[in-house]
Design goal:
S-adenosyl-L-methionine, NSUN5_RCM1_N, methyltransferase, transferase, 463 residues, Alpha-Beta Plaits, MeTrfase_RsmB-F_NOP2_dom, Rossmann fold, 3 domains, alpha/beta, single chain
């Protein structure tokens, strides 16, 4: 049963936009990751067929306690996989409905005039967009430094090309070559589909496999060491570990997620990353009381709520990334509530709102609605002025927000808005100084392509 439960949890995480397929599988805690990855991948590939079978056989109506994700996994293995080898009571449940499911599958083949299961699948279409997005690697500065990680990869036969001067250099990466990202100081860039999940640096927590766009929220929140910070919708925990690295494990992070399985996974990830000073709570952030004394010093909040996940370009085969208008409205309603709630913390100075969605309803429209409700208490500030992709013009001041996309920034699709509390006497919103937003890097004066200078003080070295 553990296999099917783990697979259903990964499917749920994908639907919630909480990460890519590989990252969710490898962070699941399931011991046989290849078996889990294969099952989830094939379930996703057959997802449109499975949904028709579930509807035709009315399985979810007959079994109220069976989640759609678990139902897909069970029916895939029952009809298309190697047969149900485990599963306990769920295995017995699926077998009870086997005759109806097989009859529905036969009817489906007749309607489509095919004889093989594989012929029910849509023709495979390679995603040119996904294949262009590089593999981004965030160096975990709680355990090591950029220089040592670069040296480690060079010893493994990789060729380091220095800091990239343009996106074209990232686009041209191939083979065992890698670069330092042109924007973020602790981000390395490898060719697309480079698999580092078995690399010692990853398994030991020295590097985090995290898309560049996903690194932007913590980078732009930029809390000073010693700050009290909330990560409101924290799982799977990559942004939380990034916050801890920025804080240098000094201060306090309060991280919330309502799902017990995701909290357990996140706890494992944070421990591997060497994060301390983080209170992880299985709790709905909307139920957190801003007036509680322990939150009285919270000055920074990172809010990356559940969204459609429509910006994820490599989530897996066969996934639906075009939510209905009804689902978008429901998500936007939740996002407005949670953003308004976050802005009610009394000591809050700065908040970053982000989604991995491309839809205006979840992004600019949410920010605009909440700012109108809040009057002049908070303002948009210009996030990362040199970033090429800005917010959609639907929101006044949208140029202060930023967007990311595979075509324009070689990342997943993302949206980020930075809000700050207005000071007394402020007449109108004004962008922060560029230096405060872009955090100039210590290697700025180096020639493009030159190796970064060695730091005097190094953290633990991986050999």
């Amino acid at each position: 049963m553990a296999l099917y439960s783990a697979a259903a949890a990964v499917l749920d995480g994908l639907e919630r936009g909480q990460g890519g397929l590989k990252s969710l599988v490898y962070n699941s805690g399931f011991p046989h990751v290849r078996q889990l990855y294969a099952l989830v991948s094939e379930t996703l590939r057959y997802a449109p067929v499975l949904e028709k079978l579930l509807d035709g056989a009315a399985l979810l109506q007959a079994e109220k306690k069976l989640s759609p994700q678990l139902a897909k996994v069970l029916v895939y293995d029952l009809l298309f996989g190697k047969g149900l080898k485990c599963g306990g009571r769920w295995k017995a449940l699926a077998r009870r409905h086997r005759a109806r499911l097989e009859a529905e599958l036969a009817r489906l083949k007749v309607r489509h005039k095919v004889s093989r299961n594989e012929d029910l699948l849509a023709p495979e279409q390679a995603s040119a967009v996904a294949s262009q997005v590089p593999r981004y690697v965030r160096v975990n500065t709680l355990k090591t430094c950029v220089d040592d990680v670069i040296d480690f990869f060079k010893r493994q036969g990789y060729s380091y090309l220095g800091r990239a001067a343009s996106l074209e250099e990232l686009r041209a990466l191939s083979g065992k070559k890698f670069l330092l990202d042109p924007h973020l100081p602790e981000l390395l860039v490898f060719p697309p589909r480079t698999d580092l999940h078995d690399n010692l640096l990853y398994t030991s927590g020295h590097i985090i496999l995290q898309d560049k766009a996903s690194c932007l929220p913590a980078f732009l929140l930029s809390p000073a060491a010693g700050s009290h910070v909330i990560d409101a919708c924290a799982a799977p925990g990559n942004k939380t570990s990034h916050l801890a690295a920025i804080l240098r494990n000094k201060g306090q992070i309060f991280a919330f997620d309502v799902d017990p399985k995701r909290v357990a996974t996140m706890n494992t990830l944070l421990a591997r990353a060497g994060v301390t000073g983080c209170q992880l709570a299985q709790q709905d952030f909307l139920a957190v009381d801003p007036g509680e004394p322990k939150y009285s010093k919270v000055t920074h909040i990172l809010l990356d709520p559940s969204c459609s996940g429509s910006g994820m370009v490599s989530r897996g085969p066969g996934e639906e990334v075009a939510p209905s208008a009804e689902r978008l409205q429901a998500l936007a309603g939740f996002q407005r509530r949670v953003l308004g709630h976050a802005l009610s913390f009394p000591a809050l100075r700065r908040l970053v709102y982000s989604t991995c969605s491309v839809h205006r309803e979840e992004n600019e429209d949410v920010v605009q609605a909440v700012l109108q409700e809040r009057g002049s208490a908070f303002r948009l500030v210009t996030a990362f002025p040199s970033w090429p992709c800005r917010g959609l013009a639907a929101l006044p001041g949208a140029e202060s927000c930023l967007r990311a996309s595979p075509a324009e920034t070689l990342t997943h699709g993302f949206f980020v808005a930075v809000l700050e509390r207005c000071e007394e006497g402020d007449d109108a919103p004004s962008p922060l100084p560029v230096a405060a937003e872009e955090k100039p890097q210590p290697r700025e004066e180096a020639e493009p392509g030159a190796a970064p200078r060695k730091r005097k003080k190094k953290k633990q070295r991986v050999k």
